[in-house]
What we know:
The chain is α/β, with parallel strands linked by helices. It contains 44 helices and 30 strands. The chain has five domains: 5-217, Endonuclease, Chain A, CATH 3.30.870; 407-491, no CATH class; 518-523 and 705-870 and 877-894, Rossmann fold; 546-692, no CATH class; 926-1118, no CATH class.
Amino acid sequence: MANNFITNNKQTKTLKGRLNTLISISDELKFLVGYFYFSGWSDIYLSLQRNPQQKLKLLIGLQVCNYLGNIIEYAEQQEENSSMDEEFQKYLVSLGFALNNEEMDTEEFYNQVRFFVQMIEENRLEIRKTENPNHAKLYLFHLNEDQAEIQGMSGQFITGSSNLTRSGLHNQEEFNVEIKDYGYADAVQYFDELWERATPITDNLENRKILIDFIKNKTQVATITPFEAYCLVIKTYLDLQNQEKEDVDLDALLDKIELKKFSYQSDAVNQAIQMIKEHNGCIIADVVGLGKSVIASMIARQMNKRGIIICPPGLIGDAEKKDSGWWEYLEKFGLYNWQVYSRGKIDQIADNIEGRDFEIIIVDEAHYFRNQDTSDYEALSMICRGKKVILLSATPFNNSPADIFSLLKLFIVPGKSTISLEDNLAGKFSRLNYEYKQLSFIFKHWNSTDDRKRKIAENYYTIMIDENLPIDIKKVKAQTKRLSNDIKRIISPVVIRRNRLDLKQDYVYAKEVGDLSIVKDPKEVFYYLDPEQDEFYDNIISKYFAENGVFTGAIYQPFSYEKILSDKLDESGNRQYNQQKNLYDFMRRILVKRFESSFGSFEKSIERFLKVHKLVKDFIYKTDKFILDRSFIDRIKDFEIEDIEANLEKYAAGDLKRKTPKNNEVYDINTFQRRQEFLDDIDSDIQLFQDIQQRLKDLKLVDKDPKQEEIINKIKKLLIKEPDRKIILFSEYVDTIYHLEKRFRKEFGNDVLICDGKVSKELAKNLNSDFNAQYKGTKTNHFKILLTSDKLSEGFNLNRAGVIINYDIPWNPTRVIQRVGRINRIGSKVYDELFILNFFPSLKGADIVKSREIAQQKMFLIHNALGEDAKIFDEDEEPSAAALGSKINSNPQEEGEVNTITKIRNLYADLQKKHPEILDKISQLPPRVKTAKKHSEYELNVLRRKGLSLFAQSVGKDEGRTISEIDFEDLLEKIACAIDEPTLKLSSVFWGLYEEVKEFRPKYKMGRSEISLEQKAEANLKKSLRILKDLNFENLNFIQMLIRDLRHYHTLSTKSIRRIGAQELSDDKKSIRYFLEEIAYLKRHLGESYLYDIESRTRGRSKEVIIAIENNDLRELF
């Protein structure tokens, strides 16, 4: 190869080497390049530094732009009448793209760009832009006197393919020619002619000043103060929250339908539409009474697409009159091409929905669909696939990580997450759920009398908390709090959540919502038991149905009798034991809660339990077999509360006799190691139920119910005092409502309206006309009292009532908030004050102080018996009888805290008032700016962005250098400072840590159970490819698609995965037929090419740093 060829080949010279050599012996440089990329500057700037008298004329031939995250050159012809100033401004824009390129986010560039500015300031560097686009590359070197004399020439040049970039100088193969012996003068003349016609960039003093100011203040090397950084973080958060603006004139629409406009609702609409565009869905989680249904309807109208609503049966409304429920919302908001479906028919919807051209799905009370391993969830998942999803739930945070993940999975692709820095959201939630289960187990059993459970809890503690025994429950609480914060942070990009505190404290919303009804602190109402009744009450709670009490629950846990339990159960045995033990605990707690609710409800439960136990006993004695339905165990927590006992009775009466190996565990009693004990315990439980039935009769607790007598007397007094104030009595159980109905009818006649959970058209009409202040039809006053189960605590406006009576104890505070939310509605205030009554048992003859003490003790016994069913105390609270009484009687409207967005909105409003000039300055800053300030300890805080989601990370310089993702509020606390906070230099460790944060990729593994199930499913699918290939099976492509999904995307519900992997595929025809049926089912409901859309939709999203703020330890600065 000729000696003057430069190809950047390893065996030959590079352009970088030749440029540095020639720069060192030249006194003037003239470069014509397509564009001056700063990646090439680092390769020559040391040579330029060593020649302080040297000058460089840089002629730029092209513009650059940012295209899909990449900097590319493009030719732009100078407009005929464009001025020099216009061309200069175009160059600044182009320069901004080049200097703010993510590739330039390096220590090298950060330091070297200052030398670039210095050369401009010293007139050593002149820049011009060619009049017309020019893609030539020409490097001219005018040799210094000594070299000119030595070489016998004035200069030489290089031309060819290489731009002044790192790639062009040495990283990629190019073809350039170095020419010494001819053409130099002509090349100089060509350059000078272009130079004379070019647009001056640095020649003009004003332009030079603008250019230098642009580099120093509007690029990623900009110097900003710590306070400006703090403001930028706040502004960035809000800017990403407010990307969308309303297109439809919702103000006019709301006026037309006579609904008051609230900014908090219109803001939610804009945020939700942005979330839907970015993440394919959102969760509207405002607390009860803030108008989630109105917000969802506004979103639907704004998006102007066809959709469906899936909701509880009682919220559907009248499809013909369209004057109630969701049908009324559709009518009011002009959503005439929408449909409303009952969630009770979800499987039918999934079967019949295919091919219908709807694009949006609204799911009301979405928390119902929290279990991926149910047919209902599987059906909903298939309906939501490929659609825009809006989930409505006031209680998304009150569930386990697995429950929350189930909701997210309805619109997020778990293997390619848009709401987390790492793609694998499935692995992240699997880890969170694993920790949650262990922490929950520790809380429940750390001081258990069951040695086995206590030892497991202690083992979990030593592993999770990494501390020696004994268990410090405060440390467990702290870990649980961190877990809860992790979950809230993860889901925040897709959740809109405001409560009444937010509305009261927000600088805009507070002016609009005006005076809200004041919810008075709950009042205690005591009913009194005689000594015999009191003794029976305490025996039920602390003796008969307490943990390890008289009730054995043998029929719910046959595994414990089949073999002698040891600490070394295998995985399957441990799962079976825990499942059945949990079922026993669940049934035991039901009896305790129904007893507390009403003696009538409890009597019905005892009657059903007795019937089931007798049927089971009869079956065992006839067959020597016992059958436990595994699917019943899996589904029991998803049954409506009133359906649990009915389903158990139905199973015992009929399903017990049908052997269906697919779901049933068949036990041969004769193989039980504790056979006689099993039979004796069943007899013992039957005797217990019979004894309880007799005592209920002897004590006349049902016929002359003291609790019922007291509530009737209390209501009479309320109606005498305020005859126009309607009253709602809530109970968790329909049986309690039935128990009260007869006596209420006798005492109050037709003033009583009963809701047993089934909302007929007639009942819906009465609820609206008599209890809904926003009802646009004819209002009536037929009823003064509403007795209802919690079916009406969700989705109904009942704000013409002013009193809520919690007939049974509200063990879940969220339920109380939901109940009160029915009567405390934003924008439709009826009463200045709203009242809550709570009922508690006490002993006859006790005064008010003693009554409260007795009630608290009884409630504490129930609390302990209920265990995890009682969600009264927070993680950091120590349970006690007095504390329990205080918590139950606390004001539900005072629960909760101001949300992050409210705090930031208020902070930003304050900045707008006090420092508008700073907000104007930082609005022109690009990403990746940096600053440093003093602090009590060292930490580097980095705010990163992925799509429209923000992530805060923090790292110290300790030996482990642990990089943590932190809450946004924690970030603000770390970077908050005064306006005059001095700016420090970046420390010597900054860049190393900064690069570690940028490169950090957390890795999460799926939990053992998830892996096991997915592995079984994938194994069957892979095996089917071998078996079915010989059969020329038409679904081979679909099976391969399922395998890709399991490996990379994780979109299938647990129920769908179980279809594939529940039974090991074998070569026999029956196994193949069953497998093919399940594959056909999935193909029919998912679509034969369902994954293609997901694959195209989830291609990589870029991540970028917004700002880095270094807190330098004061002790190390001096």
